[in-house]
Amino acid sequence: MKKLVSLLLGATLMVGVLAACGSTPSSAPAGSTASAKTSTPASGDKVTVRMTYWNSEETMADLLAYLETAVPDVKVEYQFIDNTNYATIVDTQLAAGEGPDIIVEAANSALKHARLGYLEDVTVLSEKFSDAGNAIFTYEGSVYALPGVSWFEGIWYNKDLFTENNIELPKTFDEYIAVCKKFEGIGIKPLAAGLKSWEPMLKNSMAFVTAEYLTAPEGKGFGEKYRNGETALNGTWNTYIEKWSEMITEGVYTQDMTGIDHEQAMEEFTSGKAAMFCSGPWDLEAILAKNPDLNLDMMPFYGTQPSDGWMIGGPGGGFAVNANSKEKEAAMKVLEAIATPEAQKALVANNEGGSSYLVGLDTGLPQYYNGVETTIKAGNIFCPWDEWGAAGGAHQDYGVEFQKYLMGEQDIATTLANVDVVVEELLAK
Amino acid sequence: MKKTRKFYPGTLGKYFLLFILPALVIYLIFSILPFVFTFFYSFTNYTDMNPTNLNFVGFTNYIKVFNTPIMRKAILNSVIYAFVMTGMQTLLGLPLAVILDKKLKTRNVMRAVFFFPAVFSALIVGYLWSYIMSSSDYGLINNLLHQLGLGTVNFFGPKNALFSVLISQIWQWTGWGMVIFLANLQSIPKDLYEAAEIDGAGGLKRFFKVTLPLMAPSVKIVVITGLVGGMKVFDIIYSMTKGGPGDATETVMTVMMRQGVSKGFYSTGAAFGVIFFIVVMLISTLITKLMGKWSEAIS
């Protein structure tokens, strides 16, 4: 009897282990790769397609609800993957010939996946969208993702602090520095910045270079040349960054700010201790939750000449179809539905402040963006590293190198040259 | 009478294999196999742009690892972190254990209080200490300094950041070391102390001549786990500084994750992993031998 019990116990353990190591069962959770290939209709006659994105499901709620009615024979299974691991997870799944049926792609990932043949050509559907939206998802003349709503980063400002202190809104970079000095003079921190992160200086300096050089006749096409290895930051951007570095020499960005993170900087702004805070629509809810009475608006970044201003941004995630999807037809149907005004409005509804790239569709802007209305209407939203192709990921290194510059560890030429080295390495892959 | 043939050990006889097999299979699948693959990939040109057509590239990836400029800084930071962390954990944990082994009314509460931080995840501890040490007005320490009329201290400047992370980790893990030391302390026979007392040994002498030598096993555990864990530090760095500002707090693991995984240089990441495995193995072996000699010398 004892022997029998031992044998049964051992056998059970073995079966358990083997079952765990075997292929994923059909009832696997959404995160499993097997679920990506659901070929059996999940409910009724519906075909299930899996869509992955780094944004939470709430930001897609209205669109998903719309798709349920617009494409009744397809069930879209939404899967959130944290942004930190998104690229790695999706890359691995696609390399294995698996992965989600619909992939929301960042610009550099879309180009990489298009080059590797992982994505379906969606050029026909993309014709409904503007060139500005399609450009960053275009590889060798074909479009591989439909642009989602735009994202942008500008400068949130406390209107009351400007009014109470009789401070005019700036229209140029020099005026901006002067405004900062005025606030500093009256004991108010001009700009709250969480420089523990590499992001603020990346976006701020790139916005300046965009206004000064990248959108000027001599700078247009820099991105393309850069991704083809025909030019470098060091030797091209130095004079612009030299000017921008007044943000540091004039004390707007300080070394102490490396001890502050994004959330803490936001608190300085919402509590009225700081007059400005660089961010985008994604922080609006949090800002208003922290201080519902804050009289808020947004202004753009400026170059040295008066202009409508510039913001860092571009199309958010683009909707792409996995070329290896077993439900390609259903996935394309979903993309067709996404390329309609109704779907775009639903998408914008959960991403307030963002706008659609669908030709002829004006989704309007909430009150908090009056200060950037002309900037948006002028189309002055640009994300330089979106043009860097496979080297787009080097934007993080750019931010990190600027932290070193802020701390006085290196000069501008070294800072830019170090980024060039990373870009070269990434392009050589 | 027929003699039952036993495989060893224990009394399970031949069924011992059946019982060991599940753990062995799991170990092979989740530890040995990935390591074998890592070793294999470290000699290939595997990247996110080249996931299938792999070629043998010799030691190219290993050379690349040593030529990565940030690597020296990362190794130095990892070594500083591991040694300071282990040293402080032992230096603070040991006396704490001795004190909390005494018949104090509050000793159980105190033991729980000191051990409590070890229960939290590194992410929560990182978030908490980021606020405590923030340079903003809302940072607890800087707020107090400002109220005293003093200037801001940037705990996350390039010179301080690593030590700020270390403070949070010493706070979190000293209690864990204390528990290990306590377990060892309680196993020391009381007669030894009585004998030492009869021989006229005072409190300090009893600690150095009786307690400390007999604490060798627990010190060995704390030192080895501390050093190996310290060399592998990732989560708290990720949570508190993400390797910054600049590369001030980059460690071997953060560089490996950034270069090897985030940037898609998988084979270089694999070479990082293999080199790091060898380094950690060498340190562990050395420390184990040193600690072993200490134990022998004492006995």
Descriptive overview:
The complex is a heterodimer of chains A (429) and B (299). With 429 residues, chain A is an alpha/beta fold. Chain A folds into two domains: 35-149 and 316-367, Periplasmic binding protein-like II (D-Maltodextrin-Binding Protein, domain 2); 152-313 and 383-427, 3-Layer(aba) Sandwich (D-Maltodextrin-Binding Protein, domain 2). Chain A is built from 19 helices and 13 strands. Chain A is globular, with a radius of gyration of 24 Å. Residues 1-42 of chain A have low confidence and may be disordered. By secondary structure, chain B is an all-alpha fold. Chain B has one domain: MetI-like fold. Chain B is built from 13 helices and no strands. Chain B has helices spanning 15-41, 60-67, 69-100, 107-115, 122-132, 140-147, 161-185, 190-198, 203-214, 216-231, 235-240, 252-262, 266-298. In chain B, α4 (107-115) packs across α7. The longest helix of chain B has 33 residues, at 266-298. The radius of gyration of chain B is 24 Å and the shape is globular. Classes of the chains: A alpha/beta (429), B mainly alpha (299).
Poorly predicted runs of 5 or more residues of chain A: 1-42
If classified by CATH, what would the architecture of chain B be?
Orthogonal Bundle
**Which descriptor suits the 3D outline of chain A?**
globular
Q: Look at the structure and give the mean pLDDT of chain A.
A: 88
Q: Biggest β-sheet of chain A: count, sense, barrel?
A: 6 strands, mixed
Ranges of chain B with pLDDT <50 over ≥5 residues?
Answer: none
- By helix and strand content of chain A, what is the structural category? alpha/beta
For this structure, the CATH topology of chain B is: MetI-like fold
Q: What's the level 1 CATH class of chain B?
A: Mainly Alpha
